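Researcher: Next sequence.
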Amino acid sequence: MRIDLTGRRALVSGSTQGIGQAIATELARAGASVVVNGRDQDKTDKAAEAIKQELPSAELIAVAADLATAEGADALQQQAGELDILVNNLGIFGAKPVLEIDDDEWRRYFEVNVLSAVRLTRMYLPGMMQRGFGRVMNIASDSAVVTPLEMVHYGMTKTALLAVTRGFAKAAAGTGVTVNSVMAGPTHTPGVEQLVSGLVDDDTPWDEAQHRFMKEHRPYSLIQRLIEPQEIGNMVVYLSSEQASATTGGAVRVDGGYIDSILP
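Model: Next structure:
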């Protein structure tokens, strides 16, 4: 099956590194025009340049905006224009004992990980519905259903995204627009490398540290390794396509079999 997204415009929030950059790369590889986003203009430009080096014919726009704020979302909309594909990838995470998380940190995680997605979906979904085509994806996590003890606040936001996704999918019923969550499992990103080093040992060689992390902290993974970001991007490309027209309101798993359930 060949997926061609030529003529579609996509936004991937928080796409200057890791999963977000991989998603932006794979959407561009499939022919979509992609808006790359980060908070810092220099970092956003460099991310777009990295994609351009790999895909010289890619159509890219680098837009720096803090999408955790209404002002940032408005500024992005002015530069990005209308969208066919919205990927709400922006998110923060970090390990912290749940009894030490104060009110401000709970709010910050909700505003960045959940409210940014709600705001952008509210901004772009009506136009998609009016035009009769659109794809909205919220990048969730296995942590949405398997709450990690070391970062309960992060898990809470990903659980919220599943509910948000289902609600917006119902609002778009019968319009030709689909709204889905993509539940990523433990993925090999710079941020996760830092998390692994903190939980295992900074001096442990990476291959051994990854093995220990998966065995001790993510023992139910069926692939028994970290997922590569491109593998998440591949699922997003499929869900962005015409071929995925009957998939909506769902929590689609790219978790390496980590979630020990036959349902999400």
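Model: Helices lie at 18-29, 41-54, 70-80, 103-131, 152-171, 190-199, 206-217, 229-239. The radius of gyration is 18 Å.
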